[in-house]
Amino acid sequence: MEYNRQRWAQVRDYWFVLITMLALAGCATGNPIAIAETPAQKAYAIERSYNIILAGAVELAQDSSTPASLKRAIGRVETRTTPLVDSLSAAVTDYIVARAQFSQGMTTQQKLDVFSRNLENWINQAERALTDLAAAIDGGG
Amino acid sequence: MGATLVALLNVIGSILKVRGQDDLGQYARLAASLVQRGAQAQGEFEQLTADLQAMVDKGEDPTEDQVASVRNRRKELSALLQASVPDDPEDDPEAA
Questions:
Q1: Does the N terminus or the C terminus of chain A have fewer Cβ atoms within 10 A?
Q2: Distances in Å between the alpha carbon of A108 and those of A40, A83, A113, B34, B60?
Q3: Contacts A31 to B, Cβ<8 Å
Q4: Mean pLDDT for chain B overall
Q5: Hey, are the CB atoms on A93 and B68 less than 8 Å from each other?
Q6: What is the DSSP-derived secondary structure letter of residue B96?
Q7: What Rg, from alpha-carbon coordinates, does chain B have?
Q8: Count of CB atoms situated within 10 Å of the CB of B56
Q9: What is the pLDDT of residue B93?
């Protein structure tokens, strides 16, 4: 009896993962991050992509049919990923300001390179945050 | 196709609820909401791709205002999400 219950729970979970994968496959068309050419464009693409996924997470969290455990798992991941994307946002603003100063001769190429490297570092971390949040919505937590 | 799948999943969810298998019905309704959200997100990603392509074609970077607008939206969404997450594990029969 217990074996049957566990087996049925497994079948149910596999079915749910299959449906979820079908649902999320719709998001896979087009890759805005891949077409971005400059670090600032890439950062902007990541931030807006993150917002789209975060909006999906909000809808799931507000949906009464979503299990409380999944809501909590998404909430936990979000408290870790959003601060990373916020740091990316700060880095891109610093870079935009530094680049404007450089074009006006108010800063050096060396200083601009520092902001550029900092931005690249946060881009890498934010890309991972994006993947982590998407995985949490997919039920991985 | 997406709308048909959403309708079908909602019907399955309702049938399972009527038959006293609401735990399964809950998964069907959740899947329906994910399919619906997937279709909406696809449209948003297409819009973002078009915006980025225009930016790349013009050789422009985002402005500080654009970056600030995205940041503010994220703050709103983050607050909404955290407000919607149940914080009492005893409310969750699956975790018990």
A1: N
A2: 19, 30, 9, 49, 21
A3: 49
A4: 79
A5: yes
A6: -
A7: 20
A8: 14
A9: 55
A47: nearest CA partner in chain B: B70
Is residue B25 a contact partner of residue B16, using CB atoms and an 8 Å limit?
yes
CA pair distance A40, B93, nearest whole angstrom:
45
**Residue A82 near chain B (CB below 8 Å):** yes
Query: Nearest CA to CA, how far is A99 from chain B (Å)?
Result: 11
The string of pLDDT tens digits covering residues A13-68 is 444 544 454 455 444 456 888 899 999 999 999 999 999 989 988 988 998 878 88
Whether residue A40 and residue B95 make contact (CB cut-off 8 A), yes or no, is no
Place of tokens 């998404």: A74
ipTM metric? 0.75
A57-113 pLDDT per residue, tens: 898 899 887 888 888 988 999 999 999 999 999 999 999 999 999 999 999 999 999
**Closest CB from B38, B77, B92 relative to A55:** B77
Which residue of A13, A27, A70, A87 to mutate against B (max B Cβ within 10 Å)? A27
Neighbours of B72 (CB within 10 A): 10
Question: Taking CB atoms and an 8 Å cutoff, what residues of chain B touch A58?
Answer: 77, 80-81, 84
